[in-house]
Design goal:
Elements (H helix, E strand, L loop, with lengths): L2 E12 L5 E7 L5 E14 L6 E9 L2 E9 L2 E7 L2
Antiparallel strand pairs: 1-2, 1-6, 2-3, 3-4, 4-5, 5-6
Length: 82
Amino acid sequence: MEEIKVYVDVKALFSSDGRLIPLSIVWTDGREYEIAQVRDVCRAASLRAGGAGIRYTCLISGQETHLYYEGSNLWFVERRRG
């Protein structure tokens, strides 16, 4: 099944040492999901939905999720179409 990019709002913190740390995502319907843990941060491409940026591997609602920061204040997650 094809995956698509879904742009989301993200509440984030800029730490005193310059790191950008996502705290929660706000889904397109307005529901907010807390990010329990950021497990990894690296530059990567989204091979499923297209695009690239800084990939945050996050634990959200008990599931590992990739959250991408494209730059220009744009964040997206991958979602199955349909």
